[in-house]
Amino acid sequence: MEIKTYTKKDIATELAKRQNRSIRSSLNMVDDFFNVLRDFLTEDSPYTRIEIRNFGVFESKPTKAKPRARNPRTNEEIYVPAHKKTRFKPGKVLKAHLRKPI
């Protein structure tokens, strides 16, 4: 099975076609959009939720520290500090499209 990978440039190219813009201006728009998402998710607030209707929800939330985590390769115990974890939950429209039979 072959995996199709899309990059930011592919997204900008498709946006340029749909909006009759130059690829350079649409690439700047896509970059700005992802920078805004990144800035929101990396805020100091412990819980952040970005809801994009008909697409999905991006969430970041804190995790607890794990003082006795284990490295599976060496079986060594390590300390994992508390950090933020991100998650994406698809919306209704996207989920419906993904559930269609292939």
Key phrases:
5 strands, alpha+beta, 102 residues, two-stranded antiparallel ribbon, 3-stranded antiparallel sheet, HU Protein, Chain A, single chain
User: First CA to last CA: what distance?
Assistant: 13 Å
- Series of secondary-structure elements, N-terminal to C-terminal: HHEEEEEH
Percent of sequence in beta strands:
25-35%
CATH superfamily: IHF-like DNA-binding proteins
Strand order of the largest sheet: 1-2-5
- Count the domains: 1
Q: Which assembly state applies to the chains in this document?
A: single chain
**What fold name goes in the CATH topology slot?**
HU Protein, Chain A
User: What spatial form do the alpha-carbon principal axes imply?
Assistant: extended
Secondary structure: helix percent? 25-40%
Q: Tell me the number of strands.
A: 5
| Radius of gyration, taken over Cα atoms and rounded to an integer in Å | 19 Å
* Structure class: alpha+beta
